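Quick board copy: two proteins, each given as sequence then tokens.
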Amino acid sequence: MTVSRFTGDKLAEARERIDELFGEQNGSELQPDVIADDADAAKVDYGRRLRVEAGALIEKAERLLANAGSEDAEDLVNAVEAVKDCMAGADVDLKTAMDTLADLLYYLDA
């Protein structure tokens, strides 16, 4: 049997001092570091998904390149190069380049 050195009023006083120092902690509330971790994980997932989609767009562009006219082929090559250049950079730039390539692919596929 363990005997606590805090009993009765002493235990209540110790709890009050702890609450004053740290405030009351509610376990159901998300802590800021947990929220930051979740946001970072979402950014990583978004970036990974964007790069997979970019790869798929590049593959489709390369397949259509063989049958494209000279002007369309040049536009395709430029758009693919823009996407490849942006893959190592910011997601916003990559998304913009992907949108441009997707629009061109839609035009050529129609």
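And the next:
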Amino acid sequence: MTSLNGKRIAILSTDGFEQVELTEPRKALDAAGATTVVTSPKGGKIRGWKLTDWGDNVPVDQLLDESDPQEFDALLLPGGVINPDKLRINPKAVKFVADFVASGKLIAAICHGPWTLIETGVVKGKTMTSWSSVKSDLINAGAKWVDQEVVVDGHLITSRQPDDVPASVKLSSSSSAETRHNTRLESRMDGMTNRNARSNGLKADEARKTSRDGRDAIAASSPPSRSGDLSRRDLLTPGRSEKSACSRCKPATDSA
């Protein structure tokens, strides 16, 4: 696993975040050496949503009012129905995300997470994915929505649901040329495709074709790297849940 020593990742959330979409990526990022910071408009603890009911509490590391995007290298936006619906109507939360957008730092959004991105205006012209119920919202905001597991467009990474993404996290500094970055990314995609092929019983040639198609799409959308930035890698990597969490999400208004 690529070392993320010295990298600080902000996780913007509030009550109603889909539990595995925060906890599993965080575990992997921490294991890689990153410092993950849960920031929230609410102090104390925030409560997760676990499949069909309220889940566990997660301590808030830093209040949103005290958080400066300049102190972080990347941003993770977990989904869940309730969490991003609250964040997208919070002006301070939207500004926090907008500052990451303006700086060109890596932003990863899972499932319903792109709702908050829509409020910043960044999705216009971007190719993105999400939970299916967010599709029309993204299209209306000017994005091109695709039904794919993980989509990378510039510094934005989006994913449909926890079950779509592999169970590892790898980010690295992009201090090398873009061609070298693409080579590393291709290697990751090959590995992911081969694992999927084994689990789904695909033939080797079908797996290789899938990998090539994915590499071509990413290469076509890759802008030049900037020294010191995190490269566009699969930040979205919660462990596979037994069932898709968001397929069982139910809106709620109260965490009590």
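Board note added afterward: The radius of gyration is 17 Å.
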